[in-house]
Amino acid sequence: MRLIFTLLIVSCIIATSITIEPSTLRGNSQSSSAKLSEIRVAVYSGSGAWTYDNVALPNLFEWMDCSVTTVSGYDIKSGCLDNFDVLAWPGGDYLKYWEMGQEGKSIIQDFISGGGGYMGICAGAYYACDFMVWYADWNVQPYKVEGDELDLDLFPGVAHGPIDEIADWNSPEWYNMTKIKINHTHPITDSLPDYMQIFYGGGPFLIPYEDANVTILGTYDVTTQYYDVTTQYYPSNVTAPPAMVAFEYGNGRVFLTGPHPEIEEDSDRDGWPPELELSDEGSDWTLLLEAVKWLARVDIEESVQTATGSGSASFRPDSGMLEGLTAIDEANLPTPGRPDLLFSHGFFSFNVTGLVEGQTMTVTIAFPSNMPVGTQYWKCQDGTWSQIPVGDDDGDEVITITLADGGLGDADGVANGIITVDPGGVGYKLSTERVEGWAAILEMNNFPEGWSSCPSLDFMNSEMMSHALIELGWQSDHIYVRRDNLTIPVVEESVEWLMENSDVNDIALLYIFTHGMWMHWELLWNEWFPTIWEQVNTSKRTLMIDTCHAGEFIEPIYDDPKPHISLAHCSADEVAWAGLPEEGLPILGSIWNYYFTNALCNSTADFDENGFVSVEEAFNFSTPLVQTYMNETVFTVPEFLQSYHDIDIYPENYDAYPHPVMDDQYPDELHLDLRYYIMISDLNRDGTVNIQDIFIVAKAFQTKPGDEHWNEIADVDKNGIVNIIDLYTVARDYGKIV
Fold it and tell me: Do residues 123 and 189 both lie within one domain?
């Protein structure tokens, strides 16, 4: 607030010994999940602290549910900061803060550089800067305040103030509201409104040095005069000077604000009656809530045990505070209008508080087990069911929902800074259809003039892949084969065939064998394929690239958010090998294809011994075999090794060559053996899904590891509890014969 406020009664702060357990949050280099109550805040209330902030700041942090303690200069010099995550330095008498001296300055700097957070408000912002320029005495030139060696030197820049265009410091009305334009490029401010009205009383504008690594969070909506300390030129105008900044200091973080967001003018919850002629136009405490979370490096998270007993679900708001998180039993909700979905984790209600009026925010929810692609979020308000769009719907355990204060998802429909969420939960439709496999297999042996052809292969690579899939239970009419003349339209047509035939539970597989350069120059693979591949609406997409430089053609798929698995014969800078009959080597065709397809049908590759070889197991089993064959058979023939040397590749310089690549973005292990999707229901392995399998689940129903009747076999989806999902999975396959 005011640097020297003569109308205030100076309180004598009696130093006390503070004994608090050391902080467990400070020093984290990355954000971690925590509750607000785990954040420990020290509020300086010693010499020079503004009386209003001695009340307002503790009230602010108590509203946040943080652990808050007021501390004096003596406490700080006695080592109390070891027990805190954030130090809040209030408005007040800037010059008296120098009484902390060099000793206090060093302690505070060490606290922040060691991972602590510093919040400086008004005079607390002046105190944090390299030095300040004071403009209040118009009888003399603005001057750099002497004694700046006692400033904290946290902010790499200069504090200038006060700003008479907002409030005349030398008049009885030295305070006012000021309009702050918000910059949304920082976690503190990314969800705040474009403008905020904040109480102002002599605070600084903050000019960083050139090339300083500082983020300007907000600017004053004024043009004021500015004294350039580098040229000593005055006056010159500065428009929209920085009002709030954030930056890193060592391993810690600093947030500085010239105006006073902690002072409420529409409420007395800060501990002081509001000025009748002033208005916040909504609380500014949300800004400081986000600042505290950023300073302490925490993502606020609350957890609750689900009503279905499936485990613990966690909720993380990207803004505001989560309150009243409660698990709701489906039996307590009305049946009429309820969607025909399985709500395996039940329902939840909660409130999000501490928002700016009308604010939109996102809640990230993590469930005990993976949620299928196509999961829906439904809420029940006053007996009426309605749907809220789901984000991050990629088949893992996490989804997001976006809510708006006074809008979507807010039960009271009022923009009041609080979102009330009626009972809602995620549901999905369990398909009664058996998993089927659909494969598009593309091979090119004969190329136009100027390209090297390999007609003697006689399309054996597509034959190998097709034969392996049929052996794994695939129907021949579910395998689409195209040979030669591979163009962009042909590949597009193949992917469209997969789209038309496969549903969300099926396997969609695309295999291609050709030249790597054909993929790069003729098919322009990376320019268009990732987009169309993402449109294949199945949770079991499998891409196999059997070419030279194959890794290059799966790299763009890495960012595909939906479940998938991609395999490449070799890395992006390597050359593949396919044996030709005229070469006289024992293996013909693609070496990788040969070993991989054999591994799919080889029980030795069944590492987890569940009776089935997954794609991941086959890849890991076949990779060393490919490398051994290349190094001990192919590269022992001088002319073949020389062919690699001719293109500046020296396999002998590697421990192994080539290096097949697997990008596994499938939540579990993916199986191509269609019998697997029936066999998981045949719990007693007698070859038939029957009443005995139902009985196994029923006997262990609603048990967890350690319970008397727990049976791991009955936990079909392996999520640590035998529940309705396991029972449904077995019942769905009732009567099927393996």
Answer: yes
Q: What percent of the chain has pLDDT over 90?
A: 60
Q: Are residues 267 and 331 in the same domain?
A: no
CATH number at 188 reads 3.40.50.880
Q: How many CB atoms lie within 10 A of CB 335?
A: 8
Name which of 335-344, 508-517, 531-540, 541-550 the model is least confident about. Answer: 335-344
DSSP structure string for 571-594:
-TT----EE-GGGT-S--EEHHHH
Residue 173 CA: distances (Å) to CA of 90, 99, 163, 166:
21, 29, 13, 10
CB neighbour list of residue 87: distance below 8 Å, 6 or more residues apart: 41, 42, 44, 81, 108, 111, 112, 116, 117, 118, 119
Q: What residue ranges in 428-581 does DSSP mark as E strands?
A: 437-443, 479-483, 507-513, 540-546, 564-568, 578-579
The kind and range of the H/E element at 731 are: helix 724-732
* 165, 229: one domain: yes
pLDDT bracket for residue 424 (50, 70, 90): very high
Last residue of a domain, one of 382, 397, 427: 427
**5, 113, 174, 264 from 270: Cα distances, Å:** 19, 30, 20, 6
Question: How far, in Å, CA of 560 to CA of 567, rounded?
Answer: 14
Question: Which residue from 469, 395, 463 is spatially nearest to 674, judged by alpha carbons?
Answer: 469
**Residue closest to 251 by CA, chosen among 61, 368, 461, 111:** 111
How many domains is the chain partitioned into structurally?
A: 4
Same domain, 250 and 320: no
- DSSP-derived letter for residue 434 is P
Q: Residue 726 sits in which domain range?
A: 680-732
Asked if residue 232 and residue 137 are part of one domain, the reply reads yes
